[in-house]
Amino acid sequence: MIYVLTAGIDVGTRNTKVVVMEEGAKILAKTVLKTSFDFNKTAREAFTAALSIAGLGEKEIDYIVATGFGRYRVEFRDINVTDITAHSRGAKALFPNTKSILDIGAGNSRAAKVDEKGRVVKFRSTEKCAAGGGGFLEKIAFYTGFDVSEIGEVALRSKNPVPISTVCSVFAESEVINLVTQEVPMEDILMGAHLSVAGRVLTTLKQVGIEPEVTLTGGLVLNPAIPKVLEEKLGLKVNASSELFYAGAIGAAYLGYRRLLKKREVEVVGKGSSRTYA
User: Fold this and answer.
1) Same domain assignment for residues 106 and 213
2) Phi, psi of 168 (to 5 degrees)
3) What's the number of domains the chain is made of?
4) Are residues 148 and 212 located together in one domain of the fold?
């Protein structure tokens, strides 16, 4: 039996993720590399690494779909799709009861409401500013001397979080320095920063309408403080597994599978056959 093999390539502002999928359902491999200034080169390297893990050659991949900030620069793609379309399909694949999507990236955040098939029915995005995404927390991590991978765990130790009032990551530096000079515990400063980000992205989610289940995607799904803060503010469970870090690439690979089947169906019908592939 010949299986349909597709690849999803999510070129984000910080990371490039690749997923190789069989029959639009089984994940054979996934990889992630830091995104460089050469989007196509990074995508190619991540794609090659994923093929090696899956034990496949490039010619065995039937369809390649690119998504993310740098999707137009992936020269070897068959097609590209928008971030929110890919993330919504990926979230739905991992959590079938998903109805609301919150994708928090490094640069900005997106919220969407999806139907039972994972199609976007309503969509909103924050402004292209670090204050609405992970870039804000990266700045805070730098100002406080922590690695960005550590700040979530540190923030969870907070007893009295101090709000970061500024909406600009640049001006946040002086506010953080002021709090440090006042000897405010670092965990309280960091939790305040997480609360600030959560408040901004939830405003976007409320614009599309909040309906359980809510699923979180994007880089901040790996930060343990963000799902906790979101759940406290929403008063409901938020899906936030580590697999959702790859939601964009998963959704892209799935959409490639569906598009290829439709393409083949059209080709067969055009030849006078009644055979279908889906």
Assistant:
1) yes
2) -120, 130
3) 2
4) yes
Looking at the structure, do residues 48 and 158 belong to the same domain, yes or no?
A: no
How does pLDDT run across 214-244, given as a tens digit for each residue? 999 999 999 999 999 999 999 999 999 999 9
Distances (CA, A) of 147 to 143, 151, 193: 10, 7, 15
Burial class (CB in 10 A: 0-12, 13-18, 19+), 97: exposed
Does 202 fall in a domain? yes
Confidence of residue 131 (pLDDT cuts 50, 70, 90): low
Q: What was the pLDDT predicted at 278? A: 37
219 and 144 co-located in one domain: yes
User: What pLDDT is stored for residue 277 in this prediction?
Assistant: 35
The pLDDT of residue 238: 97
Paired with 18 in beta bridges are 9, 31
Q: What's the whole-number mean pLDDT along residues 55-77? A: 97
pLDDT at 274 over 60: no
Q: Which residues are CB-contacts of 134 (< 8 A; sequence separation ≥ 6)?
A: 14, 104, 105, 106, 148, 197, 218, 219, 220, 223
Which structural domain range is residue 157 located in?
98-240
